[in-house]
Amino acid sequence: MLRISGVSKRFGDLSVLENFDLSVPRKGFTILVGPSGCGKSTLFNVLTGVVTKESGNIYWLGERLPHLGKKSAYMQQNDLLLPWFSMLDNALLPAKIAGEDMAKSKTKALGLFRRLGLDGFENYLPGEISGGMRQRCALVRTLMFEHELTLLDEPLSALDAITRTSLQSLLLLLQSEFNKSILMITHDIEEALLLADEVLVLSRLPMRIIERFDLSGSKPRRLSDRHLIEIKEYVLNRLQQELSR
Ligand SMILES: Nc1ncnc2c1ncn2[C@@H]1O[C@H](COP(=O)(O)OP(=O)(O)OP(=O)(O)O)[C@@H](O)[C@H]1O
Ligand SMILES: [Mg+2]
What residue numbers bound the domain in which 15 lies? Predict the structure, then answer.
């Protein structure tokens, strides 16, 4: 569905992406794990047109595009909530800009607030709630549209273990319910092993894919599964090697 080929991006002297290739299948859950600062967010920013690439091609359903733009929903690493809007208004903003039916959008947003454990906080301002709640609000805003592809940059990183586990289950449920693709970044290898159909392990700068694991199989999974324990240890070793390179 999405294929990028030979994409390069530099910031001044820093080469972040050099001839980077990636394919994302339809209806899959693809997860990227890699060292901090290796270029993961930059890749998402290039894909969505937040920053411009120097070279390379992005293909969406076979069609070459400068970037995905509105074809995907993107939850950035930084929650980007507007401080003077309530949580609900923040979640509704993209629907408003897109000229959607606001009554319908509001019903949908309230349902997502409930599912993400934010009911009762709809009228709070971002400055009045915790980092984890802001992150969930940004997730509501991203899930408001059922795009073919949703890009999530560490969507659960600010959450406690219990909330995180329940939102991991919710992401699985939403993906099977809407039958869409998710491309997600996480630092948490266990999270990747629980959720992904495919895990891609990334190198340091310039970013390359150094390992690829196909995990297609039944979900929910259990981390006590021997196969997953082996992959986890392998990935941790691989990342350690990469960091000491
Ligand atoms: N807008 C920018 N201007 C200049 N340098 C940038 C910019 N965005 C990213 N960088 C640099 O590019 C490199 C990759 O950053 P990026 O944010 O993509 O890493 P990341 O893999 O998402 O890291 P993390 O896991 O910590 O979020 C870093 O060295 C960063 O300083
Ligand atoms: Mg990042």
Answer: 2-243
